[in-house]
Amino acid sequence: MRIGITIGLHQENESLWNNGIKQNAVYLAEALKHCPSVASVHLVNTTAVAITAALPWDRARWPTVAFEQAKDNLDVLIELGGQVSADQTAYLKTQGCRLISYCCGFEYVHVMQSILFNRPLWGYDLFVNQRYDAIWMVPQVATNSQSYFETLRRRPAQVVPFVWDPIFVNQRSQGFDYHGEYRPRAAGAKRLTVMEPNNDIVKFCMYPVFIAEEAYRQRPQDIEIMQVTNAERLARESKEFIAVMNQLDIVRQHKAVFLGRYDTPQFLSEMTDVVISHQIENALNYFYFDVCWQGYPLVHNAYMCSDLGYYYEGNSVQNGCRQLLEVLTAHDQGWQDYLARQRQVLGRYLPGCPEVTAEYERLLTALLQQAIV
């Protein structure tokens, strides 16, 4: 079986760290290569951006081509990071190619916010493809977006395994001390890091900041600084954000900084001892896995991976604080066991995991047994 996975490049040297879509495409490609029925997997760019050596991944390992080069040599095209048009879809169907919509974003939330808060996505020019042979979605988006996918695309959607690989975090971390892995520092006080994107309600920094604040009220001597990335604009322009932050001791006592954008591996290696996070309807994500693979203590509320890091339930800042205090008290005494445990748990998401391979093989087999839509 010859498989393509779409990406939508905007620059020839586009960063892997500006969102998870390109990483997702690469991880899925790596997972599918383990399936017995798969002969080849290509990344297929759907934009006019040229494919050059500037791409931040190994094109020998993950061959990357333009749609025009791929369209006559595919049995399955998985639309993931770049959309194919109605005409392109029609052509693929004449070649006997199946088309899968692979959904890895919380699209219903994006659309709600676009409509309610004047954040344009497509205006009147919305193309909804009606000719998918299957809709695959990662588990964390099903609760909020499954019905959105199914009604608009007129097909049932099914949950597929979430896949992750440490290859990029390892690659980016090679030049850092200890290859970017966590090591206890001699100084007792810890540097707390909050790295939410702050683009929408799904991953926003306020509750992680509140968790740090509650811990600071109890153990100020154990907290050197709280660093909130992707928040510089909020701290300069949002009067409401500024007003709330100014209620907090950790801010008033100059133990907090609000910074711009950083890539995860560098910030972890050079500036972080503990990561605090919070999510709504995004209970699996690559950021958590990158953090835990490198052995950093992660205080989080992602129930789908509650056996990773230091888990607190729901929106309980107090429970998050208790977990943070546990990190401050005891983490460094068992950091090596923690690192080993995180990597063992993350094994269930890796390409080549027998359960992951078997499920994708089953899905592909079922797809080929269907008539082409």
UniProtKB/TrEMBL annotation:
Lineage: Bacteria, Pseudomonadati, Pseudomonadota, Betaproteobacteria, Burkholderiales
Family annotation (InterPro entries): DUF2827
Identification of the protein by name: DUF2827 domain-containing protein
